[in-house]
Specification:
The chain is built from four helices and two strands. With 74 residues, it is α+β, with helices and mostly antiparallel strands. It has one domain. The chain is elongated, with a radius of gyration of 21 Å.
Length: 74
């Protein structure tokens, strides 16, 4: 009986105190304009990210050594 009461208190504490939190956008970095990244563009153009409530930002990074430094900044 003691474990049942503790379980109920735990469930109430977890579910009652939960508030939705705004998430940051998911940033997807692509480094070349090629067919390899085609599914990302098609998915964005078709609106599938928004359909499934995903806030996605596609970022293009060009260049050599600068690309490595910028990708760590995100």
């Amino acid at each position: 009986m003691r474990y049942v009461i503790l379980s109920l208190i735990l469930c109430v504490a977890v579910f009652v105190g939960h508030r939705p939190v705004a998430a940051e956008p998911l940033r997807i970095v692509y480094t070349a304009i090629s067919l390899m990244y085609g599914p990302l563009w098609v998915t964005q153009q078709a609106g599938l990210f928004k359909k499934y409530n995903l806030d996605v930002e596609l970022l293009y990074l060009s260049g050599g050594s600068r690309r490595n430094h910028r990708s760590f900044a995100f």
